[in-house]
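TASK: fixed-backbone design
INPUT:
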């Protein structure tokens, strides 16, 4: 038989945990990226994006950014916010953007290199609500937020935290970021995200991260350690508060992922080609702005184009249109030469079959489009309005299987198994052969969640479906969670900084 490389796929228990899962490992995609469009078609989309920026332009809602762009040669409306970009200016700026970036985690074993053929999976992010099948749906809160961190830290297939898994609205908005980033820094040892909602929040996140890593007073600029998503306000606007946060990140050599929010028929043309042309225009304009501000700073191209239900206007995810847009987005990002972000998304209201098949559709498209960053990889429901504990486990199982699909296959004399076939001959079986027994534990992927027992055994064990089993695994991971070690002096410094910033009032309301 064709055998998987045993060294890449052995399951192991998370330290202190009774849940079996694949060991942590960085992932590379060995398959060529899928090309949905021809080179000529990609060129047509890119040319239209340039025309949008040259003839229509973007509203840049930040005085300093507009002046910077004017000095660089952009056409800035003297009485308004509109900026028009020459394609030569865009190309010249983007020539400084690095093709890949290394995101350093507090635990060096969890450091990620983003770009090329590499792919990393993130947690659900930014949901206003949380849910499980016992407690039901509820507003985001600190307890659930911390439980999602515990599970995300415990799941080896979750490589990074893409933002607050759920928004803890029981914490005051002026100081919420302090508690949340502090929890990222202490409760986890993986790469995490900070929201670019103004300069102050990013400055606080950078300081907490500096303290967690034990960096000197010069800060974090020597290495990239955190990232942020910069969403354009589609169509064709970039908000000042996002620019302030992005500038602070770029000045400190931290990663900004420019991600237009282009839903076909709502915030962009109803055709996928038109939506992608607008997506490309907004993405390259945002990345060019940051390269003009801080040449060589790490940036990435974010794709989030999908469609809406034309009867209700509700976003639709995991659709054929969404999948094709994700694949084409990869082609566009590779043309620019920067890392590419995509997402695992669905529009289902519960962790059911719809949620899973829509997530499969979007995730496979991201995988075969050679996305480097898979945002919302585990736990997303309701088009992003809810973070589900059960869906986090279901997605983790799916992502584990996909990571196994990426593992190299060994085809050699031993794996071809000719002697085993010769020994068994016609009409026999291979369960007891030496060839099988030597590979008993590594021959096939061992799922964390799936139940491969027959109906009678399944019935005897309570007839639990995948969602019920996922709930039990999530509770087990919470029970088994062990906080990653951190130097006591560093954790105390983080605690003292948070206390001081809270005493100062945190971030002003207008920031």
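OUTPUT:
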């Amino acid at each position: 038989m064709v055998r998987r490389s045993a060294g890449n796929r052995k399951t192991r228990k998370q330290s202190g945990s009774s849940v079996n899962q694949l060991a942590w490992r960085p992932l590379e995609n060995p398959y060529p990226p899928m090309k949905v469009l021809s080179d000529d078609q990609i060129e047509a989309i890119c040319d239209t994006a340039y025309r949008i920026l040259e003839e229509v332009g973007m509203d840049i809602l930040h005085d300093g950014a507009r002046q910077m762009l004017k000095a660089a040669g952009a056409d800035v409306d003297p009485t308004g916010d509109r900026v028009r970009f020459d394609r030569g200016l865009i190309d010249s700026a983007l020539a400084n953007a690095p093709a890949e970036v290394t995101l350093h985690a507090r635990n060096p074993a969890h450091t990620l290199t983003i770009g090329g053929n590499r792919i990393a999976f993130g947690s659900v992010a930014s949901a206003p609500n949380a849910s499980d099948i016992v407690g039901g749906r509820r507003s985001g809160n600190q307890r659930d937020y911390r439980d999602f961190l515990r599970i995300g830290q415990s799941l080896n297939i979750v490589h990074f935290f893409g933002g607050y898994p759920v928004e803890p609205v029981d914490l005051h908005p002026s100081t919420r970021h302090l508690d949340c980033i502090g929890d990222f820094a202490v409760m986890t040892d993986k790469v995490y995200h900070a929201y670019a909602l103004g300069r102050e929040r990013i400055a606080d996140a950078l300081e907490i991260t500096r303290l967690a890593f034990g960096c000197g007073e010069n800060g974090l600029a020597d290495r990239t350690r955190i990232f942020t998503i910069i969403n354009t306000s589609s169509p064709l606007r970039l908000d000042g508060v996002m620019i302030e946060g992005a500038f602070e990140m770029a000045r400190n050599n931290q990663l900004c992922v420019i991600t237009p929010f282009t839903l076909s028929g709502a915030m962009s043309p109803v055709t996928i080609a038109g939506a992608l042309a607008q997506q490309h225009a907004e993405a390259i304009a945002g990345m060019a702005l940051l390269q003009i501000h801080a040449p060589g700073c790490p940036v990435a191209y974010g794709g989030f184009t999908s469609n809406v239900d034309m009867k209700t206007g509700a976003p639709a995810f995991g659709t054929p249109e969404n999948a094709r847009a994700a694949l084409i987005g990869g082609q566009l990002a590779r043309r620019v030469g920067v890392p590419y972000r995509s997402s695992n998304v669905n529009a289902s209201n519960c962790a059911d079959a719809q949620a899973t098949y829509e997530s499969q559709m979007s995730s496979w498209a991201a995988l075969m489009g050679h996305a480097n960053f898979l945002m919302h990889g585990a736990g997303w429901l309701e088009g992003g309005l809810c973070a589900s504990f059960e869906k986090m486990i279901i997605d983790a199982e799916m992502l584990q299987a996909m990571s196994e699909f990426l593992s190299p296959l060994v085809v050699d004399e031993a794996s071809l198994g000719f002697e085993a076939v010769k020994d068994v001959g016609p009409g026999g079986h291979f369960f007891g052969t030496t060839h099988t027994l030597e590979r008993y534990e590594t021959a096939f992927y061992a799922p964390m969640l799936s139940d491969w027992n027959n109906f009678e055994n399944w019935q005897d064990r309570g007839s639990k479906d995948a969602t019920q089993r996922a709930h039990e695994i999530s509770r087990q991971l919470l029970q088994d969670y062990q906080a990653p070690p951190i130097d006591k002096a560093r954790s105390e410094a983080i605690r003292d900084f948070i206390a001081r910033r809270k005493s100062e009032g945190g971030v002003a309301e207008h920031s």
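COMMENT: Residues 272-293 form the longest helix (22 residues).
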